[in-house]
Recover the amino acids of this structure.
């Protein structure tokens, strides 16, 4: 087993199978989307031909949704998956959210929550999409003005209640819409079926991965994760590699690795953040250059699937900084990836 090449294939980073951004997100299950601008590249770079316009179309039509889901953080999910995923992760996510609120000394009574969500509903019933500032203005008009932090918690509670999700894609600022308007027919399913489907999505798109990786990624309890794995039975392949037990899906591809391939990964990309242990592709000596202990991830360069440096983009120009000066990045291959990114952002 070569977990590095297998993950490049599973994550659609080499020999991508999909032309549609929606199909990439549906395949990946859930993609962390902390960075509002770079999340677009995270999806598009996994398509055959990256297109900002195609991403915007799928996003505005509700085929791709951005909201808080697993681990109480931002994720992109396929529109048809939001309903059952929200039901699956709501309880642990709410525990995490309440913990943050308690730490910050914030308590929101149920009556206040209901009143604020009614305002959200009223505003978004009139207009298709609204920014946070629009919601704040509406609350102020009704004598319910509040600090920005408290409003953020209200929005998060409304997301977990299934009321709000992402609105139209704007250049820099996020917007919100009603789930009922964006997704008229939510998909629901029994819990066991949902656990099995989540495990299938994870191991086919992130495998080979461990049970601990799945627990980290999903934010669910270990018993739920074990249950999801068990329900898939022979769909999953179990292998031991360097003392660790890895799981892959039977549909995983095994051919397509290209020597010398280079990727410009955005911050918070699933290739790193989708696993609890990242040592397979990121040497521990360099981990502090890829992410810190507070959960901040930076853009990184992959060479044959291993993290070898950082990159940044400003004013339509890309700069690269290998971790070691003797790291050989083929200039033609690197330039091709830079041009691919620049074309995508339209600079």
């Amino acid at each position: 087993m070569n977990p590095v090449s297998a993950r490049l294939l599973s994550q659609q980073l080499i020999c991508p199978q999909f032309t549609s951004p929606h199909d990439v997100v549906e395949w990946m299950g859930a993609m962390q989307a902390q960075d509002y601008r770079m999340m677009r590249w995270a999806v598009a770079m996994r398509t055959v031909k990256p297109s900002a316009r195609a991403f915007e179309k799928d996003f505005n039509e509700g085929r791709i949704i951005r909201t808080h889901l697993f681990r109480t953080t931002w994720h992109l999910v396929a529109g048809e998956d939001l309903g059952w995923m929200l039901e699956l992760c709501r309880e642990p996510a709410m525990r995490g959210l309440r913990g943050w609120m308690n730490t910050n000394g914030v308590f929101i009574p149920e009556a206040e929550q209901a009143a604020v969500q009614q305002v959200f509903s009223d505003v978004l019933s009139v207009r298709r999409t609204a920014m946070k500032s629009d919601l704040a203005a509406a609350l102020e008009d009704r004598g319910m003005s509040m600090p920005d932090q408290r409003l953020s918690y209200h929005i998060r509670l409304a997301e977990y209640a299934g009321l709000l999700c992402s609105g139209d894609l704007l250049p820099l600022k996020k917007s919100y819409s009603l789930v009922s308007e964006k997704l008229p027919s939510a998909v629901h399913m029994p819990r066991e079926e949902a656990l099995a489907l989540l495990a299938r999505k994870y191991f086919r798109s992130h495998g080979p991965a461990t049970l601990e990786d799945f627990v980290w990624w999903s934010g669910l309890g270990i018993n739920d994760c074990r249950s999801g794995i068990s329900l898939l039975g022979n769909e999953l392949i179990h292998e031991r590699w360097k003392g660790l037990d890895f799981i892959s899906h039977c549909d995983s591809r095994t051919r397509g690795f290209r020597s010398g391939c280079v990727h410009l990964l955005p911050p918070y990309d699933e290739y790193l953040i989708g696993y609890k242990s990242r040592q397979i592709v990121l040497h521990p000596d360099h981990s502090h250059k890829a992410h810190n202990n507070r959960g901040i991830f930076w853009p990184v360069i992959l060479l044959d699937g291993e993290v070898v440096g950082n990159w940044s983009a400003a004013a339509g120009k890309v700069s690269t900084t290998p971790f070691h000066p003797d790291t050989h990045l083929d200039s033609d291959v690197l330039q091709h990836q830079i041009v691919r990114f620049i074309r995508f952002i339209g600079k």
About this structure: The two ends are 40 Å apart (CA to CA).
